[in-house]
Amino acid sequence: MSGSGVQFSFNVLTINTHKGFTAFNRRFILPELREAVRTVGADIVCLQEVMGAHEAHSLHIENWPDTSHYEFLADTMWSDFAYGRNAVYPQGHHGNAVLSRYPIEHYENRDVSVGASEKRGVLYCRIVPPMLSHPIHVMCVHLGLREAHRQAQLAMLADWVNALPDAEPVVIAGDFNDWRQTANHPLKARAGLDEIFTRAHGRPARTFPVQFPLLRLDRIYVKNANASTPTTLALRHWRHLSDHAPLSAEIHL
């Protein structure tokens, strides 16, 4: 509940941006992606595979922004943003980002990589809407491709959630790569997290590949919060903008 006792709601959007390129990296479409994201009117946006910097692309690709991709996407609509660098290579780096209309009081990027095969991180933001008497805890997630790695990462995620203050709202959104459908149970059993599409429709949303979604890879989990109108934005306007369908929902505290 908010400080005044009035119910508070906000919209969350999550999308894997595929580093700003269409499938198979055929075309750079970040400006079009920004326009599409803006039309949703989300208050908090969780982005995966967002480019922090790339020296070669900035020289050769038309429309490459002068700022980082997350700053370019935030532009004038989201006053606060945070970035967590996960994958680093000679030309640059990419990771997760959160855009917020409300102040981000604190953020940290926690390395959840398992072994040396692939770098993965969870970007945590403590967001403080002025009209609330407590923060919203937001985590932007991109988990590994191997089942054993994901199980270890889910355990880390549950432990982190359990370390947060009791009764404060938690939202976890992103690309869980959970094509085998094994994430819901441990997150619910260990940390009391509910997946909002599962709560509404019995199972997570189909999000990948966006042209003909078969796999239920992307999720929005909540704790100490309710959700309404969970929506898969696999509209024709989105289909060339990412290989994942974006998800959005209204979160109620």
Automatic annotation (TrEMBL):
Domain of life the protein comes from: Bacteria
Q: Which GO terms describe its biological process?
A: GPI anchor biosynthetic process
Q: Which UniProt keywords apply?
A: Endonuclease, Exonuclease, Hydrolase, Nuclease
Molecular function in Gene Ontology = endonuclease activity; exonuclease activity
List the Pfam families hit by this protein, alphabetically. Exo_endo_phos (PF03372)
Under the heading Gene3D superfamilies, the entry gives:
Endonuclease/exonuclease/phosphatase
UniProt keyword Hydrolase, yes or no: yes
Where is the secretion signal located? none
Looking up SUPFAM superfamilies in the UniProt record yields: DNase I-like (SSF56219)
| InterPro entries to which the protein is assigned, alphabetical | Endo/exonu/phosph_ase_sf (IPR036691), Endo/exonuclease/phosphatase (IPR005135), GPI-anchor_lipid_remodeler (IPR051916)
UniProt keyword Ribosomal protein, yes or no: no
Every copy of the Endonuclease/exonuclease/phosphatase domain together lies at: 20-244
Q: What are the annotated GO cellular component locations?
A: membrane
Quote the protein name from its UniProt record.
Uncharacterized protein YbhP
